[in-house]
Amino acid sequence: MSDSENAGRSCDAPSPTANPGNDAADEDGRTYDSIYPGTSIERLNNVRQRVAELNATEGILDGPWEEVRRKLLWAGGLKDMPDAEPGRGYTGHSFNDFNHVDLCTMSSAVLDNTNDGRVQGIAIGNRLGRGIRFASLPEVGDGGSWTTCQLGAHKDPPQDVAHIQFQSRIAFKLVWAPANDYTTFVLVDDDGDLLAKGTPQDDGTMPPLRERALNYRCVTNSKYSKEADKIPSVE
After folding, report:
1. 3-state class of 24 per DSSP?
2. Is 94 within 8 Å of 69 (Cβ atoms)?
3. In 3D, which of 169, 171, 150, 172 has the Cα closest to residue 161?
4. Are 217 and 205 a contacting pair, CB within 8 Å?
5. What counts of helices (H) and strands (E) characterise the chain?
6. Whose CA is closest to 65, among 233, 198, 228?
7. String of b and e for 57-89 (b: at least 16 CB within 10 Å)?
8. pLDDT value at position 210?
9. What is the pTM of this model?
10. I want to staple 76 with a disulfide (CB 3.0 to 4.6 A). Which of 3, 57, 103, 136 is the partner?
11. Between 120 and 196, whose confidence is greater?
12. In sequence order, what E strands does 36-191 have?
C-alpha cells in the first residue's frame, strides 16, 4: 500500500553529489549520515548523478509529461510499474499527485521501518518495505528508493515520511512553481537547492492544476519553495 492511501489532503501553508557535512564512519569504516542515518549515501549520490545527466540534456524534461515522469523514475532508481498492485511495487502514483514527490533513498536497514504516529496525516504503520523492494533498481546502490509523502516537509526540520519514518534525506523533491499556472516544476535537493527544472507538455496525464497547486502549497515559505518562487511569469 502506498502512503497516499492513508494521507490527508491538506497542507500548511548544485552539485550532483551530496556533501551535507554530516558524514561519519561506523566501526567497520562504512560512511553514514550522522543526522539521518537511514540515508543510503551511495544510492543518493547515484540518483543525484542521474538527475545531473538529465539536466545536462537540453529539453529532456520539457517533453510529454508521461515521458518526463518515466525519466524521473529512472533517475530516482525506480522501475516504471504502472500496472503492479499497490504494495507490490506500484509506481503509477509517483510524481502524479501533490504528495508523492519526495524521492527518498533509504538504506537496507530501514526499509521495513513503520510510522509510529509522528508523521501527521499518515496512517500508523504505513508499511512500504515490500513495495520498495519490488520497485527499486538494484544497480543504483544499497537500499531502495521510493516516492514518499511530503506532508510535514514545510516544518523545520522536516517532519515527513522520509525524514521521520525512514530517518533519511531525500535525493530530490519535485515542486511545481506557481508562475504560469504551475506548468514548470523544479527538482531540489534536501537543502532546497536547485538540481533541475522542466516545463513538460500536458499529454492528458499531467497532474491536474489543483494537485500541482496543492503540491506547492505544502511547502510554501519553506526551504523547498525558494527555487520554485524564482521561476518568472511569462506574459
Report:
1. strand
2. yes
3. 150
4. no
5. 5, 7
6. 198
7. eeeebeeebbebbbbbbbbbbbbbbeebeeeeb
8. 98
9. 0.90
10. 103
11. 196
12. 100-106, 144-149, 170-176, 185-188
